């Protein structure tokens, strides 16, 4: 086997600087036209009309959900789910220990106790861990479909939640259009939220959306951040909440029409994006399957949306090499988008969760997380091993994807042969 000299040692890189950059969303003429059309229409929508109604109807219909509600961010959409069940002091929320903080940080802000359960080998919430933490104050469990890979045990968790009278919330921010055993993520739990932030598959630059079939959750979510017209029009006059329609709960979390015009245009291409991403992900998986120290996702029973493709670098099988050295060698080959995630991690360690009373005060925080930093073995191993690479969504990017496979294989061949670089 001929092993090429690595770029990190003076060899020729697979990609020249600037050639392997992942840009998302891609600004197209149709996206520009959508923005111009919205500019000519209005820059403020206070009720459920225009582009807001179009997007909410289309998104709800796609997921076969009854109620939909746009907001200014995915975090606000998640906060609206928690408001929908009146989360507050004395309530407990169970969440995966690995992920992005916004999946559950709004619950802490609202005074709830967050308990972190360990994850499974795929990075999703472990049903066994989650259910072992359920107590008399457990009100909700959150699953996060990280990287666009559905949480493997979502249905098992949903079944247990239904049996115990616990709400199941889905954070689908990475997983637009992903399916688990034939069901779209976001259609399984009591309610679900998606981010429409810049890097998301359906992007408006900023924005978020909540879906649910539960009228009471929807009405409180509207009341929380959409006072006056939406509350007047969409809360039943027979509901005691309608009396508060003028002020809502005092917050304004409305989305911006330009953002939603972009997101609506993007949503129209979602199935095409997903088709291409899945082809490219398969190309990468097949190209890297032979390397024992690169653990690939097990997607049996699911169709991911591939927000990113996570690899786990097994240092024990890689000889004398660290994950960081491996990533440095890949980047030297011009694979600039290969990344050790920084925004995601073992969120139980973050001060907001480990010491919330120091910033929120004792009056708002009634308890402390039950899972301590020492008892999350799978989450800690996952955080120490994860490497992610982007998955492109346009056919014209095939040469770049092929180059990434070539570059990873080039470095991996050195590791496989010598256990080092």
From TrEMBL:
Gene3D superfamilies linked: Aspartate Aminotransferase, domain 1, Type I PLP-dependent aspartate aminotransferase-like (Major domain)
Keywords: Pyridoxal phosphate
Record has 4Fe-4S as a keyword: no
InterPro entries, per database record: DegT/StrS_aminotransferase (IPR000653), PyrdxlP-dep_Trfase (IPR015424), PyrdxlP-dep_Trfase_major (IPR015421), PyrdxlP-dep_Trfase_small (IPR015422)
Cofactors (names): pyridoxal 5'-phosphate
Gene Ontology biological-process annotations: polysaccharide biosynthetic process
Active-site annotation: 200 (proton acceptor)
GO molecular function: pyridoxal phosphate binding; transaminase activity
Record flagged with keyword Transport: no
N6-(pyridoxal phosphate)lysine, modified sites: 200
Protein family per UniProt: Belongs to the DegT/DnrJ/EryC1 family.
PANTHER family xref list: DTDP-4-AMINO-4,6-DIDEOXYGALACTOSE TRANSAMINASE, TRANSAMINASE
The protein, known as: dTDP-4-amino-4,6-dideoxygalactose transaminase
Species lineage: Bacteria, Bacillati, Actinomycetota, Actinomycetes, Micromonosporales
């Amino acid at each position: 086997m001929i092993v090429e000299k690595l770029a990190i040692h003076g060899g020729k890189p697979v990609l020249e600087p600037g050639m392997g950059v992942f840009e998302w969303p891609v600004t197209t003429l149709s996206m520009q036209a959508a923005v111009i059309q919205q500019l000519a229409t209005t820059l403020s929508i206070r009720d459920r009309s225009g582009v807001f109604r179009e997007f909410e109807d289309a998104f709800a219909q796609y997921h076969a959900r009854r109620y939909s509600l746009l907001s200014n961010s995915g975090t606000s959409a998640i906060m609206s789910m928690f408001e929908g069940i009146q989360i507050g002091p004395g309530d407990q929320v169970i969440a995966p220990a690995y992920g992005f903080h916004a999946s559950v940080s709004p619950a802490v802000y609202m005074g709830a106790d967050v308990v972190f359960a360990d994850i499974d080998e795929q990075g999703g919430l472990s049903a066994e861990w989650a259910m072992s933490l359920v107590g008399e104050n457990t009100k909700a469990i959150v699953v996060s479909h990280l990287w666009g890979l559905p949480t493997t045990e979502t249905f098992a968790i949903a079944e247990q939640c239904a049996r115990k009278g616990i709400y199941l919330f889905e954070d689908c921010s990475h997983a637009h259009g992903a399916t688990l055993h034939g069901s779209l993520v976001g259609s399984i739990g009591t309610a679900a939220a998606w981010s429409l932030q810049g890097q998301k598959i359906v992007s408006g630059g900023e924005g978020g959306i909540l879906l649910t079939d539960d009228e009471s959750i929807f009405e409180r979510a509207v009341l929380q951040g959409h006072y006056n017209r939406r509350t007047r029009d969409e809360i039943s006059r027979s509901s005691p909440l309608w009396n508060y329609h003028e002020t809502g709960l005092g917050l304004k979390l409305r989305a911006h029409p330009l953002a939603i015009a972009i997101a609506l245009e993007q949503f129209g291409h979602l199935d095409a994006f997903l088709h291409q991403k899945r082809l490219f992900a398969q190309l990468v998986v097949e190209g890297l399957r032979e390397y024992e120290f690169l653990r690939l996702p097990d997607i049996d029973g699911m169709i991911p949306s591939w927000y990113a493709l996570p690899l786990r670098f097994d240092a024990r099988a890689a000889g004398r090499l660290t994950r960081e050295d491996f990533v440095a060698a890949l980047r030297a080959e011009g694979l600039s988008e290969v990344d050790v995630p920084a925004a995601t991690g073992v969120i139980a360690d973050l001060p907001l969760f480990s010491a919330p009373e120091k910033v929120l005060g004792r009056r708002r925080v009634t308890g402390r997380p039950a899972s301590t930093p020492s008892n999350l073995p799978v989450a800690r191993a996952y955080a120490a091993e994860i490497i992610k690479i982007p998955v492109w969504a346009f056919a014209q990017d095939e040469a770049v994807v092929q180059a990434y496979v070539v570059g990873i294989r080039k470095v991996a061949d050195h590791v496989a042969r010598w256990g080092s670089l």
